Amino acid sequence: MNVFCKKGNCVHNDGEGSCLAKRIRIEGLEAQTKLGTSCATFSGQEDIYTVEFAADFMFDSEPTTSYKIINCEAVNCVYNSQGKCNAATVTIDEVNARCETFQLI
Predict the structure, then answer these.
(1) Mean pLDDT value of segment 38-46
(2) pLDDT per position as a tens digit, 47-94
(3) Taking the CB of residue 85, how many other CB atoms lie within 10 A of it?
(4) Which residues touch 52 (CB under 8 Å, ≥6 apart)?
(5) In whole angstroms, what is the distance from residue 21 CA to residue 13 CA?
(6) Residue 33 main-chain phi, psi, to 5 deg
(7) Would you tell me how many other CB atoms lie within 10 Å of the CB of residue 58?
(8) 8 Å CB contact between 102 and 33
(9) Which backbone phi and psi does 76 adopt, to 5 degrees?
(10) What whole-number distance in Å separates Cα of residue 56 and Cα of residue 53?
(11) 41 touches 57 (CB < 8 A)
């Protein structure tokens, strides 16, 4: 699964638009559009040295080829399968870290 992150100030962004986090969580339990979603894994540069950050996230040195686990709370999305995302490619937007891949059932 490819995860493209346009949110350049996220610590998981490799600077070229790929996400380095192995686990990603998308929020949006009642989302009807992508505007109701958000990447809960987003962490600003100021978070990189916190203990909580280090404990919660592992980095992946091969962002576009490694398996990603995406836990998805957006139950109204066609790609949500029992709380996991099954889209081949996921894109996170640059402004609000929303899931651009979201599609209403």
Answers:
(1) 86
(2) 655 545 554 455 555 544 456 899 999 999 999 999 999 999 999 999
(3) 24
(4) none
(5) 8
(6) -140, 175
(7) 10
(8) yes
(9) -90, 10
(10) 5
(11) yes
| Cβ atoms of residues 98 and 42 within 8 Å | no
Instruction: Work out whether strand 23-27 and strand 69-72 pair parallel, antiparallel, or are unpaired.
Output: parallel
Tracing tokens 């559009």 back to the chain, one arrives at 33
- Claim: this prediction has a pTM higher than 0.70: yes
Start-to-end CA span in the chain (Å): 21
Please give the backbone phi and psi of residue 53, each rounded to the nearest 5 degrees, phi first.
-60, -50
Q: Hey, CA dihedral for 38, 7, 67, 54, is it positive or negative?
A: negative
Is residue 88 within 8 Å of 103, Cβ to Cβ? Answer: no
Strand partners, 89: 2
92 neighbors 6 (Cβ within 8 angstroms)? yes
